[in-house]
Write a structure and sequence with these properties.
alpha+beta, 4-stranded antiparallel sheet
Length: 377
């Protein structure tokens, strides 16, 4: 595999590192010390810095004020954002921009993409369905009524929904097709019930009661939902990789300085072996992430559909990020539970990422079904 990135992608990484260098994981109250959300809003100051550095415009095409880069570039920036637990809807906004560019009508692209590029419009995405266990596209019904569409249903655990301007969500039509709808929080019939994520962020259950949506705000391309879901998945895997890399770096630094019996604990065989195992996890997470991101970016063919590579990436990211933070907590000893030290925050974010990805066993089952349907010669 060749993991060499283009000059534009590498430039995006350098710009991201510069912006995130000033972000601190402990910039808000700890989720372990608050009964509610850690903050009322996402980090608007950081969001503006990302916009000023042209990082929000990366997935937006040049004709709408962006750089026209691909999901791989978005994943590279998300990897850096996770290292500082950046509290911004970067994944959701970037995925929405890519889906709108690829699948929406020209009117919606012209209306939405320039504002996404400047950060003046914040779009989040609903993917958890009604309960978090059912298919997201089956949780909302969309039916045509004249020139408009009517939406009814619920979507739970929608990230950043209380403060985002619009929500891009999947819905099913009476004849079984999946469409995407761009819904504004201010639309009649839209109501939000506050929820809090494992990482302490404000989420919401979005309820839609006969919400009228104009035809231009609907994306009816049959491949739109799968494309959006794949981008969100690989972006989540990139976040898991970045978080895991930062946690392993923290663990290496701590065990190199912490001494027992006159020696750094990093020199003890049991400690070194556990750290080495987690390093292997991260390299596997990295290899499977870029394979999946490359497949959905290039639409390259292979023995299995792209869904197979995405499933493998999800398996490693879900299991790998959990193992990394658990080992880090173990090797930090009691210090890892100290709320004045940021490791517990990374643990909470890792658990949220794991929950977002879903259990590895489910992805293994999906991969098995793909192998059964596409026997490898």
């Amino acid at each position: 595999m060749d993991f060499t990135f283009t000059e534009e992608q590498q430039a995006a990484v350098e710009a991201a590192k510069a912006v995130f260098s000033g972000a601190a994981p402990d910039g808000v109250p700890s989720p372990a010390l608050t009964t509610g959300a850690v903050a009322d809003d996402f980090d608007r100051a950081l969001w503006r810095k990302l916009a000023d550095a042209d990082l929000l415009s990366l997935p937006v095409p040049p004709e709408h004020g962006g750089a026209g880069l691909d999901p791989i570039a978005l994943c590279l920036v998300l990897r850096e954002s996770a290292k500082v637990l950046a509290r911004v809807p970067l994944l959701e906004s970037g995925a929405a921009a890519l889906a709108i560019q690829r699948h929406a009508n020209a009117e919606l692209r012209s209306e939405v993409l320039p504002r996404l590029a400047t950060g003046d419009l914040v779009v989040t995405v609903a993917t958890a369905g009604r309960t978090g266990h059912d298919s997201a596209e089956l949780s909302v019904e969309a039916r045509k009524e004249g020139a408009a569409w009517i939406l009814d249903g619920n979507q739970t655990a929608v990230p950043w929904a209380p403060t985002a301007d619009q929500i891009l969500l999947p819905a099913h039509t009476p004849d079984g097709h999946t469409v995407l709808a761009l819904v504004s929080r201010a639309d009649d019939g839209v109501s939000l019930d506050d929820q809090i994520s494992t990482s302490g962020e404000r989420y919401a259950e979005v309820r839609l009661n006969s919400v009228h949506i104009e035809a231009r705000e609907m994306i009816t391309d049959p491949g739109a939902w799968e494309s959006l879901r794949n981008i969100l998945t690989v972006g989540t895997c990139a976040s898991a990789l970045g978080l895991g890399e930062r946690v392993l770096s923290m663990t290496s630094d701590y065990t190199s300085k912490r001494e027992q019996f006159g020696f750094p604990v990093a020199t003890f065989q049991a400690v070194a072996v556990q750290a080495a195992d987690r390093f292997i996890d991260l390299r596997a997470m990295e290899a499977t992430l870029w394979q999946a991101a490359w497949r959905i970016t290039t639409d390259a063919t292979g023995p299995l559909p792209a869904a197979g590579d995405v499933a493998v990436a999800k398996i490693w990211a879900s299991e790998g990020v959990r193992r990394v933070v658990q080992t880090a907590q173990h090797l930090h000893g009691g210090f890892g539970a100290d709320t004045d030290y940021p490791l517990h925050r990374f643990h909470a974010w890792a658990k949220q990422l794991e929950l977002s990805l879903g259990p590895a066993a489910a992805h293994e089952e999906a991969l098995g079904d793909l192998l059964a349907a596409h026997p490898l010669s």
